[in-house]
């Protein structure tokens, strides 16, 4: 069933209650699906949270994933996105000895900026589409990044 | 009213109309058992193993259609019960299983008899709860019964820490449930149902493919009506035995790995599969790419995730099968039974070519004969449970089932040791019927301690042990696919089953001939006590026909013609 293994973004609205996250991740591991990235946060002024799950699979697998997710009792809604705005964030630490002007310019191109300059390190953040974040992380290799932290994606239907 | 958590459990069970609870006490659930001692509204049946408590609740639920209830303690009590939860989950049996847990303050400390019960049951229940406050109990228990019984039924597990059962809070069971995220879709789409009826009217060789969901939905008599009025032949899955009566002319038989030749050929030749409450299990379909290759597929099921999971449905309908079949009956006018006459004849010819049968043997009884004979002697007056293995398949093939909920077996999980405790639950729910458990010499030993439960509670289950001194089904595969290397399947070393039954206060028979069998069964029924009837059967008998795992339905190994070897 792994024909046409495409990257998909699925959003899930769940009730805020104990063990709801493990119900979802157990479903993926138990049925042999993969989670590429996952981000969760409460929806303001409600009893729900929103999960954004990046996964991959054929049309049929994705259909099963959405149906199985929907079967879980605390799941309110499942969206499988077609046309969406998607953002991811990365925070990177560089040695202070690197060229700060170059780094700053690069960050600006990727919707980012320098957020902290210390005695020994420069810390920057960027937030952009996942593919562009990939690019950014590729380009900055020449500035010897010491540490990279990357968030999961968040997405909204257009 | 202000009561403690343990009293809340009792009050909730009473409010739900529970009349029987199966269980086994222990440290963490003692407060609840103390309240069980004080009440008279329901009966508690003490099994001799927690696994058996859950299987008994399953048998009770399957035969009665009500929610089965089991109660166990924490740690090993719970882990013993997991097989039962998984079994009920696979076969969509409505259960509420209540387990004790160590006190809240000890959770996570590796306390005595502590295990992360909800973590374990998450993947084998429809839903589960860890109750952290007594004030949540009324809502949680009410939700548990509701979720277990509605939509696609299933087991719900409620884990209650010991201090929560002692805590006092307000109990009000009249609360209205507000489950915004759980709303099963029970009414089929009317436009789609119309399209389905047109497809049936246009089909040349339509075939009903009937599943266990029909029994869960209490829709068997509506389905009988639909089959009768359309004149369309029908095959049943193992789980659907009893949906149609065995004497229904339109019932071809059981399909699948050990289905009849006619059923499997009909499925291979049909041009329209009408699937009702089925899930296209691998034991039914064989090789998926060859399954009903020339057919369009109608699939009616309460569980959207079952539809197009394995076989693409051309006409998917999500809904309760009873509602949908009733809607179909409204639109039956356009369907002419006469149109399928040729197709019915084709199917009948399949059955004539290779009828479902077996060869008698002069030396030893054939297991199939035993099952048929019980059918002749007891027929409708018995409810039939089975364990798992060859005897189970022969029961599916040869017992003359006449009504839904007559047949109780572990289909999805295939749990050896299921039959005896399930038959105890069956007897507790329907004392007016004879409770038979067909079992094997392998399976019976997996929950044999339940002799004590049956004897102690005066639940006279008759266990018919088809003894071939083998783990027969595995032996059959070894014979056929492993070049007769019978690895660890020879069960020649055995207990004396007669003495074993007697040791527990039951009655035992060992029979080798037809006459002996008839008189043993008659005696056991008359005496109305817990019985083992050990039948010495042919050792090397195979279940036939057989579709080898992964093979196509139409490529069956068939019973050798007499004299052929």
CATH topology of the largest domain in chain A: Alpha-Beta Plaits
The largest inter-chain interface, given as chain pair and residues per side, is: A-B, 19 and 18 residues
CATH second-level architecture of the largest domain in chain B: 3-Layer(aba) Sandwich
How far apart the termini of chain B lie comes to 75 Å
CA radius of gyration of chain B: 24 Å
| Number of separate structural domains of chain B | 3
Domain unit count of chain A:
2
CATH class of the largest domain in chain B: Alpha Beta
Please report which band the strand proportion of chain A falls in: under 5%, 5-15%, 15-25%, 25-35%, 35-45% or over 45%: 35-45%
Mean pLDDT of chain A: 94
CATH architecture of the largest domain in chain A: 2-Layer Sandwich
Helices and strands, with pairings:
The complex is a heterodimer of chains A (158) and B (565).
Chain A (H helix, E strand, L loop, with lengths): L5 E10 L4 H11 L6 E6 L5 E10 L1 H13 L3 E6 L3 E12 L4 H10 L2 E6 L3 E8 L1 H10 L7 E4 L3 E4 L1
Antiparallel strand pairs in A: 1-3, 1-4, 2-3, 5-7, 5-8, 5-9, 6-7
Chain B lengths: L1 E3 H11 L4 E4 L6 H9 L4 E4 L3 H15 L3 E5 L3 H15 L4 E7 L15 H5 L5 E4 L6 H13 L5 E7 H5 L1 E3 L19 H13 L3 E5 L2 H4 L3 H11 L3 E3 L14 E4 L6 H9 L2 E5 L5 H4 L10 E6 L13 E4 L2 H10 L10 H13 L13 H12 L3 E5 L3 H9 L8 E2 L10 H11 L4 E7 L9 H7 L4 E7 L4 H10 L15 H7 L3 E5 L2 H14 L3 E6 L29
Parallel strand pairs in B: 2-3, 2-4, 4-5, 5-7, 6-7, 9-10, 9-12, 10-11, 12-13, 13-14, 15-16, 15-17, 17-18, 18-20, 19-20
Antiparallel strand pairs in B: 1-8
Question: What is the compact description of this entry?
Answer:
The complex is a heterodimer of chains A (158) and B (565). Chain A is an alpha+beta fold and 158 residues long. Chain A is built from four helices and nine strands; from the N terminus they run βαββαββαββαββ.
Notes on the protein architecture:
The complex is a heterodimer of chains A (158) and B (565). Chain A is of the alpha+beta class. Chain A has helices at residues 20-30, 59-71, 100-109, 130-139; strands at 6-15, 37-42, 48-57, 75-80, 84-95, 112-117, 121-128, 147-150, 154-157. Chain A folds into two domains: 6-82, Alpha-Beta Plaits, CATH 3.30.70; 85-157, ACT-like. Chain A, domain 2 (Alpha-Beta Plaits). In chain A, strands 5, 6, 7, 8 and 9 form a five-stranded antiparallel sheet that branches. The longest helix of chain A has 13 residues, at 59-71. Chain A starts with 5 loop residues before the first strand and ends with a strand. In chain B, helix 11 runs antiparallel to helix 14 (341-353), helix 15 (367-378) crosses helix 16 and helix 15 packs across helix 21. In chain B, strand 12, helix 12 and strand 13 (296-301) form a beta-alpha-beta unit. Chain B has a six-stranded parallel sheet, sandwiched between helices. Chain B has a six-stranded parallel sheet with strand order 11-10-9-12-13-14, with helices on both faces. A six-stranded parallel sheet of chain B has the order 16-15-17-18-20-19, sandwiched between helices. Chain B is built from 21 helices and 20 strands. Chain B has three domains: 2-170, Rossmann fold; 190-353, 3-Layer(aba) Sandwich (Rossmann fold), CATH 3.40.50.1220; 367-536, Rossmann fold, CATH 3.40.50.970. Chain B is of the alpha/beta class and 565 residues long.
């Amino acid at each position: 069933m792994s024909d046409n293994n495409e990257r998909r973004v699925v959003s899930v609205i769940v009730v805020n209650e104990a063990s709801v996250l493990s119900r979802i991740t157990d479903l993926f591991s138990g049925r042999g699906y993969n989670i590429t990235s996952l981000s969760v946060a409460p929806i303001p002024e409600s009893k729900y949270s929103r999960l954004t799950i990046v996964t991959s699979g054929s049309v049929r697998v994705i259909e099963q994933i959405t149906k199985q997710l929907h079967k879980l009792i605390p799941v309110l809604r499942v969206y499988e996105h077609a046309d969406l705005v998607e953002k991811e964030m990365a925070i990177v630490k560089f040695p202070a000895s690197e060229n700060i002007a170059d780094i700053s310019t690069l960050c600006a191109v990727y919707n980012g900026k320098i957020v902290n300059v210390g005695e020994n390190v420069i810390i920057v953040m960027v937030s952009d589409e996942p593919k562009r974040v990939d690019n950014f992380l590729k380009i900055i290799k020449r500035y010897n990044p010491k540490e990279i932290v990357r968030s999961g994606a968040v997405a909204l239907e257009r | 009213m202000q009561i403690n958590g343990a009293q809340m459990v009792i009050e909730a069970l009473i409010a739900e109309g529970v009349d029987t609870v199966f269980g086994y006490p222990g440290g963490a659930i003692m407060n609840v058992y103390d309240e069980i001692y004080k009440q008279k509204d329901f009966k508690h049946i003490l099994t001799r193993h927690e696994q058996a408590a859950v299987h008994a609740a399953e048998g009770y639920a399957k035969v009665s259609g009500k929610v089965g209830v089991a109660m166990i303690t924490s740690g090993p009590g719970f882990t013993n019960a997991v097989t039962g939860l998984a079994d009920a989950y696979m076969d969509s049996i409505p259960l509420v299983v209540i387990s004790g847990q160590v006190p809240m303050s000890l959770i996570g400390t590796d306390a005595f008899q502590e295990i992360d019960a909800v973590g374990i049951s998450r993947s084998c229940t429809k839903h589960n709860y860890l109750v952290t406050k007594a004030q949540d109990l009324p809502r949680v228990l009410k939700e548990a019964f509701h979720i277990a019984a509605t939509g696609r039924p299933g087991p719900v597990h409620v884990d209650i820490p010991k201090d929560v059962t002692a805590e006092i809070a307000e109990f009000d069971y009249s609360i209205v449930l507000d489950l915004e995220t759980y709303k099963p879709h029970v009414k089929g789409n009317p436009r789609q149902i119309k399209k389905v009826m047109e497809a049936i009217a246009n089909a040349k060789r339509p075939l009903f493919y009937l599943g266990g969901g029909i029994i869960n939905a209490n829709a068997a008599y509506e389905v009988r009506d639909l089959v009768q009025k359309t004149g369309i032949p029908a095959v049943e899955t193992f789980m659907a035995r009893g949906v149609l009566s065995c004497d229904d002319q339109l019932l071809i038989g059981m399909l699948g790995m050990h289905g009849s030749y006619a059923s499997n050929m009909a499925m291979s030749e049909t041009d329209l599969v009408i699937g009702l409450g089925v899930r296209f299990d691998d034991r039914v379909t064989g090789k998926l790419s060859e399954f009903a290759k020339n057919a369009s597929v109608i699939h009616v099921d309460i569980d959207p995730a079952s539809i197009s999971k394995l076989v693409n449905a051309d006409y998917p309908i999500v809904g309760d099968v009873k509602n949908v079949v009733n809607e179909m009956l409204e639109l039956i006018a356009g369907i002419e039974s006469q149109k399928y006459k040729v197709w019915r004849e084709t199917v009948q010819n399949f059955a004539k070519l290779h009828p479902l049968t077996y060869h008698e043997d002069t030396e030893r009884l054939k297991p199939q004969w035993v099952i048929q004979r019980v059918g002749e002697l007891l027929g409708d007056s018995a409810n039939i449970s089975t364990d798992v293995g060859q005897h189970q398949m022969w029961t599916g093939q040869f017992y003359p089932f006449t009504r839904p909920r007559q047949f109780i077996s572990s289909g999805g999980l295939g749990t050896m040791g299921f039959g005896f405790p399930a038959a105890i639950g069956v007897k507790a729910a329907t004392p007016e019927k004879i409770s038979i458990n067909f079992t094997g010499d392998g399976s019976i030993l997996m929950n044999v301690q339940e002799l004590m439960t049956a004897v102690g509670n005066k639940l006279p289950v008759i266990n018919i042990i088809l003894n071939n001194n083998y783990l027969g089904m595995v032996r059959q595969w070894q014979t056929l696919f492993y070049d007769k290397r019978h690895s660890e399947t020879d069960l020649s070393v055995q207990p004396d089953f007669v003495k074993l039954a007697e040791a527990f206060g039951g009655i035992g028979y060992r029979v080798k001939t037809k006459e002996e069998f008839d008189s043993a069964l008659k005696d056991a029924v008359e005496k109305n006590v817990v019985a083992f009837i050990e039948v010495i059967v042919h050792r090397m008998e195979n279940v036939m026909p057989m579709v080898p795992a992964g093979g196509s339905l139409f490529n069956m190994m068939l019973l050798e013609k007499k004299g052929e070897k």
